[in-house]
């Protein structure tokens, strides 16, 4: 069956124009005027954009003694409902577990996905097995991005020597290093002190992770990446200190990208001071929400290009799971949801306020990350030959976000009560209409794994530059003979 999207305005990262889009066998086959198909989707008054790509999710992830509650079925259903057509989840080996073993677990879980997906790999320990398996993961499995946790001491955290070794290996294999930038040693000290002083509530989570711990770690990771010659992607950038490090690095020509989350852009630290314990605990995540100055910094980063991608870090825990931490904030599972709300919230607070153009919206929700992850223009593009992962975006449509009508499996929503303007009229995943004017028509198992090749143009450029500028011996003549 041939589908045509009629009468809309195509919006890409660099251009907008009026055109119809023709889809056959899951791909875009023609873009032009007066096109005809068997099925017609009316896009009058709408923008026809590349579906969103959320490069940071944790679906059914074992973490802090439990599992995040959205799995690949509910998580990708929520994604499609909000206009996101691809997610990238983190395969997370437990310390000592092999990378390939962990990958098998993620392969098993992801068969239920409603939309396409890819994986990042996490490096949670270091040894010969990890060194060897990295090559297989990259070259045979098409997973080229590896996250390092600089926090969660005693669990997922890696030390500087491990990070250095891993970054070096990744640089050689044409991969990309990612970091969760927080100084885990300092956080652990602060948590112990806060608890000893009687600070047990969720607000203490924010006290234990001030912007300095993030700024320090971001700087450290940037310098280690520079010394090892690997491109670096810093996840969930929440504050000016980390943003400043990224801005400076980019201005110096270092290959660094920063990813703020929709939560940090739109919610602030006052959430943790709410008198309702559940309200505050439901918003506990790392790094925590910050104040208005930090939010302004993140928005400025998106507007100026020093920050590249907006994600969610979707890691949803129910209220009951959050209550594991009553009496001890360090036991509250860290994580918040956002998959369904990222695109509408960013449109409302970004495009509707004039901070972002529609083209910039497409860049930071889809195209930039598709390029970074080396799956462009298969993903992140409205082009002939691209996958028909498309959102038909109605800028006039509004709703008030509420857990009562969300797709996510949890019992609350951190954006509860927020009104958004700008929502999908249709969401297509490889040509299948998964959202049809408010009706969810997802197909469990429709999603396919997206394999990605190493050695992006950025990797190649950086390697060449490092080859030229790396330390090398000075060629000398007439070296004095050593005295005997
Ligand atoms: N961010 C968070 O609090 N939970 C998910 C795991 C992580 O990304 O650190
Ligand atoms: Zn993280
Ligand atoms: Zn995360």
Question: What would your notes on this structure say?
Answer:
With 484 residues, the chain is an alpha/beta fold. The protein has a single domain, classed as Alpha-Beta Barrel (TIM Barrel), CATH 3.20.20.140. It has helices at 72-81, 99-110, 128-139, 160-173, 184-196, 203-207, 211-228, 240-251, 262-266, 277-282, 292-304, 319-322, 342-351, 358-372, 457-469, and strands at residues 3-11, 16-24, 27-32, 39-42, 47-50, 52-57, 62-63, 66-67, 84-91, 116-123, 145-149, 176-180, 232-234, 256-258, 390-400, 419-429, 432-436, 439-440. The strands form 3 sheets. Strands 1, 2, 3, 4, 5, 15, 16, 17 and 18 form a 9-stranded mixed sheet that branches. A 7-stranded parallel sheet has the order 6-9-10-11-12-13-14. A two-stranded antiparallel ribbon has the order 7-8. A hairpin with a 2-residue loop joins strand 16 and strand 17. The radius of gyration is 23 Å and the shape is globular. One zinc ion (ZN) binds next to loops. Its EC number is 3.5.2.2. This is D-hydantoinase/dihydropyrimidinase. Catalyzes the hydrolysis of dihydropyrimidines and of the structurally related DL-5-mono-substituted hydantoins, to produce N-carbamoyl-D-amino acids. Homotetramer.
């Amino acid at each position: 069956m041939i589908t045509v999207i009629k009468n809309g305005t195509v919006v890409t990262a660099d251009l907008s124009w009026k055109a119809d889009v023709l889809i056959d066998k899951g791909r875009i086959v023609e873009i032009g005027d007066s096109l005809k198909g068997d099925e017609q989707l009316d896009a009058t008054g709408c923008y026809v954009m590349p579906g969103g790509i959320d490069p940071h999710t944790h679906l059914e992830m074992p973490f802090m003694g439990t599992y995040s509650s959205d799995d690949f079925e509910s998580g990708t259903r929520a994604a499609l409902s909000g206009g996101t057509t691809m997610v990238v989840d983190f395969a997370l080996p437990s310390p000592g577990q092999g990378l390939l073993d962990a990958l098998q677990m993620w392969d098993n879980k992801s068969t239920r996905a409603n939309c396409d997906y890819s994986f990042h790999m996490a490096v949670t320990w270091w040894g010969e097995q990890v060194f060897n398996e990295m090559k297989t993961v990259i070259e045979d499995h098409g997973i080229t991005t590896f996250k390092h946790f600089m926090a969660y001491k005693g669990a997922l955290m890696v030390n500087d020597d491990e990070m250095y070794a891993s970054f070096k290996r990744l640089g050689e294999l044409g991969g990309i290093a990612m970091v969760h930038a927080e100084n885990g040693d300092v956080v652990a000290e602060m948590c112990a002190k806060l608890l000893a002083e009687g600070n047990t509530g969720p607000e203490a989570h924010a006290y234990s992770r001030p912007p300095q711990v993030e700024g320090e770690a971001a700087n450290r990771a940037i310098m280690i990446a520079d010394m090892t010659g690997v491109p670096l992607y810093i996840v969930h950038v929440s504050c000016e200190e980390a943003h400043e490090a990224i801005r400076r690095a980019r201005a110096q020509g270092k290959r660094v990208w920063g990813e703020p989350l929709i939560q940090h852009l739109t919610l602030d630290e006052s959430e943790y001071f709410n008198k309702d314990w559940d309200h505050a605990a439901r918003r506990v995540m790392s790094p925590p929400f910050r104040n208005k100055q930090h939010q302004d910094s993140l928005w400025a980063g998106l507007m100026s290009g020093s920050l590249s991608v907006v994600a969610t870090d979707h890691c949803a825990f129910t209220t009951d799971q959050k209550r594991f931490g009553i009496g001890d904030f360090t036991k509250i599972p860290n994580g918040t949801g956002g998959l369904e709300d990222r695109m509408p919230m960013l449109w409302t607070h970004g495009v509707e306020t004039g901070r972002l153009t529609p083209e910039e919206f497409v860049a930071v929700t889809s195209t930039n990350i598709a390029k970074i992850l080396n799956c462009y223009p298969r993903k992140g593009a409205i082009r002939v030959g691209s996958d028909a992962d498309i959102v038909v975006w109605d800028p006039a449509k509004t709703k008030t976000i509420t857990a009562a009508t969300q797709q996510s499996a949890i019992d609350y929503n951190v954006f509860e009560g927020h009104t958004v303007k700008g929502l999908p009229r249709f969401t297509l995943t490889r040509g299948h209409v998964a959202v049809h004017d408010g009706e969810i028509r997802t197909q469990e198992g429709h999603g396919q794994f997206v394999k990605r090749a190493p050695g992006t143009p950025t990797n190649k450029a950086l390697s060449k530059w490092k080859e030229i500028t790396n330390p090398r011996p000075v060629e000398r003549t007439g070296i004095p003979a050593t005295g005997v």
